[in-house]
Write a structure and sequence with these properties.
The chain has helices at residues 18-26, 34-42, 92-104, 123-128, 150-159, 177-191, 215-225, 284-304, and strands spanning 49-59, 62-71, 80-85, 114-118, 166-174, 205-209, 239-240, 243-244, 250-253, 269-275. With 306 residues, the chain is an alpha/beta fold.
């Protein structure tokens, strides 16, 4: 993306207005089904978990129930662990890795922790395989008071009653080739800024909270996932997506300041996972398993170090 090949919507250097956003929205195509892929996968879990509809996402004539999976044996004496996926709807393994964790591993933590899992925070974007919502807003920069994103506001309302009791929050994401080919150029165009290529790291990495870093916790997750898939190396400048690598496969962001999902609680242990599904060294099944493994490792460490 450069001056000879500008993003096809808008005028370079000029932020989008209503007309450009409408043009962008008109170009979005439904490519998969939230009802078939996610809601149907949640239904069998009702046998062992409480499934709650914590809100409704409404765009034009499209309605999406926002679903969360909750421990049936909820005990107010136990800590809470929050697992979120699909904040960026196109990041497929975040959604299906969260569901795989519930199906295959959640029972192992019964009686030890209260689980609250929101596997697909952004169903409209899941169906379009997109990063933004229908208003051209990134939900993962919108977790703040008076959020402009319906998805973010609904999740924050769900979490509010237990926010002060959350021990762990793990937010499941992907970094894909389309970050560089579509989503970062679109962001630059939307905001009227130049697009600066940065490259895509090949492998799994984590984003720690720079305001409350937990290096031993992050390392425990990295060590577990390394048995499932490869860990992203630093680039020639010692960075991953422009941020200094503070330990193998770990960078840090100020989560709350940036309005990121992983910053919505006061949890001692917070992390954002990133897998690379476009790697020739990883399969979709491997990516899902890496996400589920990360959740398990995060839980084991947090419960052992409360």
């Amino acid at each position: 993306m450069n001056d000879t090949a500008p993003y096809p919507i808008g005028t370079p250097g000029t932020p989008w207005g209503a007309a450009e956003k409408a043009q962008w929205l008109a170009s979005q195509v439904r490519r998969r089904s939230y009802a078939d892929d996610v809601v149907a996968a949640i239904e069998p879990l009702r046998a062992n978990f409480d499934v709650i509809e914590y809100g409704t996402l409404q765009y034009a004539d499209e309605r999406y129930p926002l679903l969360a999976i909750r421990s049936r044996d909820w005990d107010d004496e136990l800590p809470v662990a929050l697992v979120t996926g699909g904040v960026h709807g196109y990041e497929t393994s975040g959604v299906h890795g969260a569901l795989q964790f519930v199906r295959e591993h959640a029972a192992d933590f019964a009686g030890r922790v209260n689980l609250l899992v929101a596997p697909c925070v952004s169903p409209w974007a899941y169906e379009r395989i997109h990063r933004w919502n229908a208003d051209a807003i990134d939900p993962n920069r919108s977790f703040r008071d008076d959020s402009p994103a319906q998805e973010s506001a609904a999740l924050m309302q769900l979490v509010a009653p237990v926010r002060d009791r959350v021990l762990l929050h793990i937010d499941l994401h992907e970094t894909t080739d389309t970050d560089e080919s579509e989503f970062r150029p679109a962001l630059a165009a939307r905001d009227g800024k130049p697009f600066e290529p940065d490259g895509i790291p090949d492998g799994f990495y984590l984003v720690d909270d720079s305001e409350l870093p937990q290096p031993a916790f992050q390392q425990a997750v990295i060590d577990a996932v390394a048995k499932v898939t490869h860990i992203a190396p630093a680039d020639a400048q010692g960075r991953i997506i422009g941020s200094p690598v503070v330990a193998p496969g770990v960078i840090r962001y100020p989560l709350r300041k940036l309005g990121l999902c992983a910053g919505i609680t006061d949890a001692r242990y917070k992390t954002t996972t990133e897998v690379y599904p476009d790697s020739p060294r990883a399969t979709p099944e491997q990516c899902n398993r890496a996400q589920a493994t990360a959740v398990c490792a995060a839980l084991e460490y947090a419960l052992a170090h409360p």
